[in-house]
Amino acid sequence: MTEQLRTDGSLRHLLTLETLTRSHIERLLERAQTFVRPLGQRPPRSRALEGATVANLFTEPSTRTRVSFELAAKRLGATVVQLEVQLSSRAKGESMLDTVYTLQALHVDALVIRDAEVGVPGLVAAHVAPHVSVLSGGEAHVSHPTQGLLDALTVYQRKQRFAGLAVAIVGDIRHSRVARSAFHAFSKLGVTDLRIAAPTALMPERAEFAGCTRHTQLEEALGGADVVMMLRIQRERMNEADLPQGERYFAAWGLTRERLALARGDAIVMHPQPMNRGIEIASDVADGPQSVIRDQVRNGVAVRMAVLAEVLAAGPA
Ligand code: NCD
After folding, report:
1. Are 216 and 304 in the same domain?
2. CATH number, domain at 31?
């Protein structure tokens, strides 16, 4: 696996949270917090990354991740290019690496990559020039490191701690990169009561999510939880035949107000979005007082600013 750190310990690439230390994650969260402003206030801007160029190379759909990487880069003074993959030569069969070499020749300093295939961000990281950084914007079902960071930041803002929290991650865990990065973030940060809950068909392999308790009943996982993270069914990673039926799924697995009442009274409800109201979550819960779903979106920009600031601070050697 490609080394993510420079010899001085700073982040060069961000492909996974799995190999970052707890203190490195904490440092990124602290820095991200300095970029958070309440809605209605102008977000902070600086010229810290003036002259740097960031390219977004997304071959899977994205709203929040793509837009927030763009805003994060612009708010730090960098230039951003969005590669419309359907309009680029990749649609003519150009390989990912040839596209990347082209962007590199155009003086791109950081590539944000989202791809449905396992290993693509790592492959690119292994081939770029030494001054170029690769940031994963979501790798298949495997990892989504900036999502893990923004989820951790959101929890910390509300709870001011990780130790002693009960965190339930619910839904299509098997196909979820969000769940895997959340698992890495929360377990590194000291959450010891980490629960995953899913119908058997959507449970990950036994070897994964070490240390989490596994629940095939939603109610069981919600009992006394401080944090409830709901996930979308990743249709694009399943065969038609394996797809759970929406209404039936909601009946057993949908987060309703009644079920949320099993969690602690001050529990927060999270969802990475896009959400399917009426399938994994009831609309009134998504918009209700315990929902921090929009905080997650706001924190996404702050986290990506912190990551870009660290990765691009050094400038080309
Ligand atoms: C998620 C993703 O793409 O992994 N969205 C996001 O980045 N916030 C979750 C999903 O697609 O369900």
Report:
1. no
2. 3.40.50.1370
Tell me which of 147, 231, 304 to substitute to probe ligand 1's pocket, judged by most ligand atoms within 8 Å of the beta carbon: 147
143 lines ligand 1 (CB under 6 A): no
Examine the pLDDT at 23 and tell me if it is beyond 50: yes
Q: Is the CB of 114 under 6 A from ligand 1?
A: no
**Strand 193-197, strand 166-170: pairing:** parallel
Mean pLDDT of the chain: 95
Q: 220 C-alpha vs ligand 1 centroid, how far in Å?
A: 25
Give tens-digit pLDDT for 92-132: 777 889 999 999 999 999 999 999 999 999 999 999 999 99
Does 4 fall in a domain?
A: no
Give the Å distance between the CA of 49 and the centre of ligand 1: 27
Cα separation of 15 and 29, whole Å? 17
Confidence label for 244 from pLDDT (cuts 50, 70 and 90): confident
pLDDT, tens digit, for every residue of 186-226? 999 999 999 999 999 999 999 999 999 999 999 999 999 99
Are 152 and 184 a contacting pair, CB within 8 Å?
no
Instruction: Say if 317 falls within a structural domain.
Output: no
